[in-house]
Amino acid sequence: MVLGYWNKILRIDLTTKKITKEEIDNNTCKLFVGGAGIGAEILWKEVSPKVEPFNSDNKLIFSVGPFQGYPVPGSAKFCITSKSPLTNTYADSSAGASWGPLFKKTGYDVLIIQGKSENPVYIYIKDNEIKIRDARDIWGMDSYQSVDKIRKKIRDPRASVVTIGPAAEKLVKIACIVVDKHSFAGRCGLGAVMGSKNLKAIAVKGSKKVPVSNLSLLENYNHKYLQEIYKASIKSGMRTHGTPGGCITYEGFGDMPIKYWTKDIWPEGAKKLGAPNYTKVLSAKPYPCLYCPVGCHRNIEIKEPAKYKLKGVGPEYETLGMFGTNLLIDDPKAISLANDLCNRLGIDTISAGACVGLAMECYEKGIINRKDTDGIEIRWGDPDILIDLIKQIGNKEGFGSIFSGGALEAAKKIGKNALKLVVHVKGLDIPAHDPRACWGMVPTYATGTRGACHMRGDEEDVEMAGFYIPEIGVTKEKAKFFSLEGKAFLAMKMQDYCSLINSLVLCFMMPAGGDLSFTSILNIFNAITGLDWDVQEAMLSGERIFTLQRLTNLRDGYTKEDDALPPKMYIPAKEGFRTGKIPPVDNLLSEYYELRRWSKDGEPTKEKLQQLGLENFKK
Ligand code: SF4
Fold first, then answer.
1. Spatial CA neighbour of 596 closest among 614, 582, 583
2. I want to staple 270 with a disulfide (CB 3.0 to 4.6 A). Which of 31, 59, 250, 251 is the partner?
3. Which residue owns the Cα nearest ligand 1 atom 2?
4. In sequence order, what E strands does 180-278 have?
5. Phi, psi for residue 124 in degrees, rounded to 5
């Protein structure tokens, strides 16, 4: 018996409006843990390579893990898995606020949405009450209006609501899913999959308590770790300044994108965007998800100038990187407005920044001109252009509509040399961390199962921020800059570790900004489940989950040729910390394949699949 799970899936078919309840067996929970792991297992079984992302046969899988349902620090997360319209393969995206715990308390571990409703609908789940309701009057509203309207309709201001904005309704492929006007499942365009199903929102409010193995031990751990994480987050600056606190350090290491990955340094820009300037200029305060002692999200207030007046969620580091240094914009207020627009329209700020960066570079290089842009001069460093283009992308109108399929699709449409300029892996734009600075990020990005991602193998924090996990050999000795030694190992371990964390469904900031050790994470897991996992067993699960996602990529048609970085990542810096350095991509990848026991073609060997218990997952 494994505790901490309901062993229940709720399946809602939007075509037939049929609602079914199914069992998940204990073995599946043990093998795939929850969240991204169980999502990957369901996607493998239920979404064949033939299914197009916007086909009604694609599934949208909302899942939680063993940590939800009790006030475990950092447990207010949930995971969404689907086939991505950007990458056409496995994708997951996670978010916080309070949806995860409130969904778990309804009595389910997983919610599968399938089919397509004829008219827009929203779903309301309150313990045993499950309703599919008309959303025609909400369709078209921005994501913040949608949350307010649904809470009003269900007469519960404390219910948690995931919703989409107008961008997802229009099938903009960089559309995100918005939670409670607070948190965002940004990457891979899963909002557009929700839009393709005519599903505007899902509101949840549960009150059930899942049985755990040792409640008093769990409560002791929660109390102890809550204090420890809080203290560590003050010390690291994460509570005071949030992720913007990273700007100056990351720029110093040549890690931030500057002028769409064509420049190497911009210390003045990073100083204006990062802490302490950000915190002061935007009156920023922590905005924690439920049960969170860190509060990395920012609540900001801008009173002047009037055109940037705003009160609400502030931009994260990634947004400052992609809208700021990436576009040569150094005004945190302008970026905050652009961020707010994205949140309301429901688009991923990383991919939006990549699209605008590509537009600015193409314009500068004469690949596009005023005739293509409806007369707009797309200049670097102009916040008004950023804001205009976000509106056009999100509303799929004007010149911006060329980006409604993402930067890669736009580059294909633009033609000429645009394809050489676009910076992506498998169709997903590289986030605001440069693999030329942290070489462990080369295999992490190249083999990323959802495309280029810094959160599915947070190796850059190991190299730049001193985030070590001694239990798994992720140590300072292996984290030397510009050294080949140990980098493939770090990439592999961090991918497996992050796969586990995303399947436990724990916020990554608990270990990375709050110093929660791997041993402490396992203490919580064992107290909940009654299992007695050690580090090795837990990491085997992480590896199994990552490998299953890889198998899905391969089954969907990806090959080792797609384990590649874009051309710009082979250009050495002319100035700054990484002057003259280029990562040895081929060496890193061949060592990585060997460590993973993958064939030269990048396929997991039969022995590896047997070791992971994945021998039945065949292409
Ligand atoms: S650290 Fe940030 S993302 Fe994580 S739970 Fe807290 S507020 Fe949410």
1. 614
2. 251
3. 296
4. 183-185, 199-204
5. -125, 120
Give the C-alpha separation, 123 to 131, whole Å: 6
Q: Which one, of 178, 219, 238, lies nearest residue 509 by Cα?
A: 238
Average pLDDT of the residues in 534-541: 98
pLDDT digit string, tens, across residues 249-297: 999 999 999 999 999 999 999 999 999 999 999 999 999 999 999 999 9
Q: Which atom of ligand 1 is nearest to the CA of 507?
A: 4
- Confirm or reject: Cβ of 551 under 6 Å from ligand 1: no
Asked if residues 35 and 80 have their Cβ atoms less than 8 Å apart, the reply is no
Best residue for ligand 1 mutational test, from 64, 99, 292, 502 (most atoms within 8 Å of Cβ): 292
Q: Residues with Cβ < 8 Å from 403, sequence gap 6 or more?
A: 174, 355, 358, 359, 389, 393, 410
Which residue's CA lies nearest to atom 4 of ligand 1?
A: 507
pLDDT band at 26 (very low <50, low <70, confident <90, very high): very high
d(CA 76, CA 69): 9
Residues 80, 388: Cα–Cα separation, whole Å: 30
- Predicted confidence (pLDDT) at residue 66 exceeds the cutoff of 90: yes
- Does 239 sit in the ligand 1 pocket, CB within 6 Å? no
Residue 383 in this model has a pLDDT that exceeds 90? yes
